[in-house]
Specification:
Length: about 700
């Protein structure tokens, strides 16, 4: 296997080298470079001390060896990595050469590498704080937040509102940069490096600005969603962050239209950045797919760049995550429509953990060799999954991820769209046959109306746990349900699928165990009730257990609405599967989907193991010649091999052989070919279905079905 791997890598690198030597037709001069969507980014997160050894020659040589075409590197904010002339911009005391940043940018450009510079305005040096204490965060207890000799700032104080723009202007006027990456934007009320929450900022400038915005209200001191003042404060935060970003975008574009703004927000930016991190259990092997799928379908007019974060945690920055985890993240980026992005501590010289270097060269080389097939996709999915935000957390995240896991393992294609953006995506949502709401408790009124209109026209809705609990009238109308008891600890209860033929995957099971939430709902007469809930019964030794009588409540209601049938599962179905992985809980959802629309499971039929991620896209060649082309060139089937993931360890993936595929296709392919292979794959095409066999899958492959 190792010989085949080495041969494959050599072939990729030779092909990539040949491509770099060519002179393809260039992109139009007025076409923004980031919209090509072929980023192969490496970020050097530089500790201050590395400014003493930073060398332009080695930086560029390392980037070229990895086939990178974009560099992100520190330049200012927390400290200046260049000879700033501004007295409020703390200069890196280890800066050895005053020209090193210019040298890096110039040499990168000679090598065809774009340079985005990193700013972080979340903290200032204590010497500046002592001169301007009003620039910094103040907790409700009157405390400041320190990280060694750096002090957390306030977004509404003069440093962020005025001085940050002076720093950025100085850099734009001094260096021919291609982009700006803004790290840690927005309100700093958590110290992520120590895992401590400090409370709503009470800085005098925040107080004044909030009073002006709210017409006289005082800043809240606690986060309480039931407090109307806090709700006003949330709107204030969104307004102030977007206002700042808008001003920053205007400044950048007034200096140079070809400089991209990249950060973690969606308004007034050119590149939305996301991050795949490993900082909690259970590990989430679909992190990159989750992030990119979410961002690319929620904000389809933006370029998305999902960074694989090398460090294990903030406390363990110099230990990289496992190479096989990095490989999965990077290939998932490609499969979902992002370029490649990797963030590491320092540059690549004398790095503390070099195990990932081979993987980086492998995947970046593969992307370079075949980049015309990547980055310009059209979805084939007919299922939409609604996400609880762009950075889900807590119990909603567990429900959301559990539903994703069920769909992934069943090889069901789906797109992710954020809950807050449903109204803006109303037209796009019409193409989906089914929409999943995993514990989405609140939606703006306009978004609820969007769901009603979609359902009236035939889109089925499936909701779990406490979904729409903040909208009791909509819950009744769409799902025929009324809450009796929204939350019940379900441990010891059972669901029974007896005499319910729709649950064919539950054959042989009369009682399905439960834990976590088990809501008790009343249903209208028109609602078909399924999965009766059985009571806890008698606990104790085997001799006395039993007594699991019917409670009169049900775990599933099917409600006709317009041309659709909507399903409500007032239970923690996703969370239970995410944490425990019992197949019967996944089978409830899969049987329900088959009942609502049996065509959905027929789009991709395969014998591939559940741990092989299958992502099917329509593609148009990502080349200058095809820039204005409106039609697609075929289908691309991405296969990411996760068989090496054991739950808490990433091993080498197992080779999987003789994978059969039956794909719905509206055209008969002229050929089917595996990327990097010269031999075509034999196939048959009948009844709008293409069928073929893949002899072997190692870590990843892309299969092109050309029109």
């Amino acid at each position: 296997m190792m010989c085949r791997f080495i041969t494959s890598v050599l072939a990729i690198l030779l092909t990539a080298s040949a491509l770099m030597a060519q002179s393809p037709k260039s992109w139009p001069a007025d076409f923004p470079w980031w919209k090509i969507n072929n980023l192969r980014t490496i970020q050097f997160n530089l500790p201050a001390t590395e400014a003493a050894t930073l060398n332009a020659d080695s930086v560029v040589a390392d980037l070229k060896r990895c086939f990178a075409n974009t560099l992100i590197i520190n330049i200012g904010g927390i400290m200046a990595f260049y000879p700033t002339q501004l007295d409020f911009h703390y200069r890196n005391p280890y800066l050895r050469s005053e020209t090193v940043m210019k040298d890096i940018i110039d040499q990168c450009h000679l090598a065809g590498i774009k340079v985005m510079v990193r700013f972080d305005f979340s903290r200032i040096h204590e010497s500046i704080f002592k001169a301007h204490p009003d620039w910094c965060y103040l907790s409700p207890k009157g405390e400041r937040v320190y990280n060694t000799d750096m002090v957390v700032v306030s977004i509404n104080a003069p440093y962020v509102q005025q001085k940050a723009f002076d720093i950025i202007a100085e850099v734009l006027d001094t260096f021919p940069i291609d982009g700006i990456f803004l790290n840690m934007p927005g309100y700093q009320v958590n110290n992520p490096y120590e895992g401590v929450y400090h409370g709503i900022d009470q800085n005098e400038h925040d107080q004044k600005r909030f009073a002006e915005y709210s017409k006289g209200l005082a800043l809240p001191t606690k986060e309480d969603k039931t407090d109307p003042v806090f709700q006003k404060y949330l709107a204030f935060k969104q307004y102030t962050v977007e206002d700042w970003t808008k001003r920053l975008h205007e400044l950048i574009k007034s200096k140079n239209e070809n400089v991209a703004l990249c950060t973690y927000m969606d308004e007034y930016v050119d590149i939305i950045r996301h991050e795949s991190q490993t900082n909690s259990l259970p590990y989430w092997p679909y992190s990159a797919s989750d992030n990119v799928n979410n961002a690319i379908h929620t904000f389809p007019h933006h370029t998305i760049s999902n960074a694989s974060i090398q460090q294990i945690s903030f406390q363990s920055r110099y230990n990289a995550v496992e190479p096989n985890e990095v490989r999965i993240r990077l290939y998932e980026n490609i499969a979902n429509g992002s370029g490649l992005d990797l963030s590491m501590m320092g540059d690549m010289q004398d790095y503390e953990d070099e195990r990932n270097y081979k993987v980086i060269r492998e995947v970046y080389g593969f992307h370079k060799a075949h980049e015309k097939y990547f980055g310009r996709y059209k979805t084939t999915a007919k299922i939409a999954l609604i996400a609880p935000g762009s950075w889900p957390s807590g119990l909603p995240m567990q429900e959301y991820r559990g539903i994703q896991l069920m769909l992934k393992e069943a090889h069901l294609s789906y797109d992710i769209i954020e809950d807050a953006q449903l109204q803006k995506r109303a037209e796009d949502l019409k193409k989906y046959a089914l929409i999943l709401l995993p514990d989405i408790t609140f939606l703006p009124a306009a978004s609820v109306e969007v769901l009603k209109e979609l359902s009236r026209n035939g889109t089925h809705l499936v909701a779990t746990n406490r979904s729409l609990s903040d909208h009791p009238e909509a819950l009744r109308e769409l799902f025929g349900a009324k809450t009796t008891q929204m939350e019940t600890e379900g441990s010891g209860y059972y669901l029974t699928p007896v005499h319910q033929p729709m649950f064919r995957r539950l054959a042989g099971q009369k009682m399905i165990m439960w834990k976590f939430n088990l809501g008790k709902y009343d249903w209208t007469e028109q609602t078909q009730k399924q999965l009766p809930i059985l009571a806890k019964g008698r606990p104790g030794p085997p001799e006395i257990i039993g007594g699991h009588d019917s409670t009169g409540y049900y775990a599933l209601g099917l409600h006709p609405y317009g041309k659709a049938v909507n399903a409500l599962l007032p239970v923690n179905l996703g969370r239970l599967y995410y944490l425990h992985g019992y197949q019967e809980h996944k089978n409830i959802l899969l049987d329900l989907i088959d009942h609502l629309d049996p065509h959905l499971s027929k789009a991709i039929q395969t014998n591939a193991p559940d741990r092989v991620e299958v992502i099917l896209q329509e593609f148009t060649e990502n080349t200058p010649a095809a820039l204005t082309k409106k039609t697609t060139d075929g289908l691309i089937l991405h296969l990411v091999n996760l068989t090496g993931f054991s739950g808490n360890t990433y091993f080498e993936p197992l080779p999987v052989r003789n994978l059969t595929f039956r794909l719905k296709a509206s055209f008969k392919p002229s050929k089917i070919q595996q990327l990097g292979k010269s031999k075509a794959i034999p196939f048959t095409y009948t009844n709008d279905t293409v069928q073929f066999v893949l002899p072997e899958l190692e870590a990843f492959t892309g299969i092109i079905l050309t029109k």
